[in-house]
Amino acid sequence: MASDLLGIGTSGVLAHQKLLQTTSNNIVNVNSQGYVRERTLIYTNAISFGTGESMSERVINQYAQGELRRDTSAFSASSMRFEQLSTVDSLLGDTSNSVGTAITAYFKGFHTANESPADLGSRASTLTELTSMVNRFHTLSSQFDKQSDVINDRIDDETKHVNSLLNNINEINKAIVRTQGTAEENLMLYDQRDDAIAQLAAKMDIRTVTQPNGSVLVNMSTGHSLVLDGSVAQFSVVPGDPDSRDKELQLSLGKSQTSIDNKTLGGGLGGLFAARRDLEPTKRELGQLAVALGDAMNQQNRLGMDLDNELGGDLFSLPSSEGLPYGNNSGTGATTVNFIPGKGSEVTALDYEVSFSSATDFEVFAIGVDGKRTSVATGNTVPVSAFEVPGHGISLDLSGTPAAGDKILLQPTKQAAAGLEKLINRAEDLALASPLKADKSSQNHGSATIALGAIGNTGAGSGFASNSLDPNAPQVVKIDASGNYEVYGSDGTTLIGVAPASSKGQNLMAALENPLGGPKVYGDPGNDPGYEFSITGQVAANDSFTLSYNQNGFSDNANGLALAELQNKDLVRKSSSAASGNDKMTLNEAYTGLVVALGNKTSQANTEMLANKGKLQQSSEIFESVSGVSLDEEAGNLIRFQQAYAASAQVVTTAKTIFDTLLSSVR
């Protein structure tokens, strides 16, 4: 009886000693990283009285743990995306970096110059604003590139961390398999492995499968294996194809290598790739804006006369770009992309792809922001290698010998803002004056006046020679006895054509016929002779009017006003869709749209981050309610187990007393 009582008491002391050890372990590890609350289960002795076997285990809800990992991935993805986007959004919102502010100041300079077009000081101020605007485009484009580099560097660092975590999980798996049966050591290893998996979940979206031997298989949410029994995969960052700056991930497991779709990664890595995708359209839209502005200013400045009595030239140079061949191309085909002068308003913010069906036949696709391709043109390199993509403002110079199936990526606007350069360094080169002047003879009997209309072309095919009017261009207008408008060359005798009196002198170039009542002389006066004019008022027979090159007309600001008015013209293509259209917006509207679009993405990322943060907090609280250590609960257990331990010790003492009494009774 005493023997049984001693055994019962001893088993109780040992059992409660273990309970006290578990409770103490929970208390001291309350702040330990990744620690999961433990408990010890005591079973009754199946053979006799007293306690039987005891088993220590971690208190964990596998479903809650899985939900916590998924929410961790979602929050990390959205917070990383927001972190990267907010940096650029703040940059765009800063007026000191604003291209929109620079554009406004630039056009304000033209308004100032127009007040005194012959004044070199006001012209110099405009040139300064031009230089400042170009520098602003360069600065902002450079900031975009730097942010892309930051993201790529973060991708490199995060990938190295992921590989380290995968190796760590694999090593802990091996240790757990080796130490099966040593419960206390395994509990610590389980905590370490769960902590490593939790860190991995913050990097990418993963799924786990527990094996009978205690190891855990780790897979990506797409099904790609990361940790298997005895083997582990590794990620590597590889140059993008064909754009090497667009780094991609490659997964290697043994001899197998797989390219990873970064859109499915999730976690912090997925957030970095998402932010990079969000920034790419903004960079191209900035380039599109630079091209539209530069081309419009070039075309208008060409239509004026500068302070050297010369026809205006280009103010800006527009960059060309080299196509990027795909890595699996077997031919030597190459493509250079150029912007077509005068068609800057047709340029989109899209990338393009040239796909060859043979060495000479090709098709051009526009690539939307969603990656979808839309065919926009087909062509052949025979007999010419230059090809204009209709409705898109770009031309392609094709060279080399492509093979069927080869593809080349074109990125016309990606670096266009960085490539925009000013071509003038002299204030005199601003062509503020009109190259034409119109006068009426002082001998006229009528009261009519002559007024210039739009000047559309001063270059090839126009009535302008080198800084003068061509002698055969319309220069003299005479009114015949019937009130018709006869237009002559500079000699006043070479008849070019006659506009009927019924035209009332309006848009004479378009109304000109030769002979009277016959075919039109000019099909497109805006191109040939490149200008238009009208005679308004009462004309009389033998009245005459003249057109001449505006020699020394430095006080004229007609073209300067047209240059300034470009600020209010719809010059930038609105939609980035592949379909050709006439939807346009002003330069400031384009920049505002660019800023708003990125701001909306940043706001969306912030909203998503806050929502995911709330969900993560909820799942974390659910998990901690089961697996976290509560000091109040453990303190209560400590008192309860201490009392039970003392009571069990008292049973041992009682057994000893009874045993001693029995021994003394037989002496």
UniProtKB/TrEMBL annotation:
The keyword Secreted applies. Residues 85-316 form the Flagellar hook-associated protein FlgK helical domain. Residues 626-664 form the Flagellar basal-body/hook protein C-terminal domain. It is found in: Bacterial flagellum; Secreted. SUPFAM superfamilies: Phase 1 flagellin. Keywords: Bacterial flagellum, Cell projection, Cilium, Flagellum, Secreted. Signal peptide: none annotated. It holds the Pfam family Flg_bbr_C. Belongs to the flagella basal body rod proteins family. PANTHER family: FLAGELLAR HOOK-ASSOCIATED PROTEIN 1. This is Flagellar hook-associated protein 1. It comes from Aeromonas bivalvium.
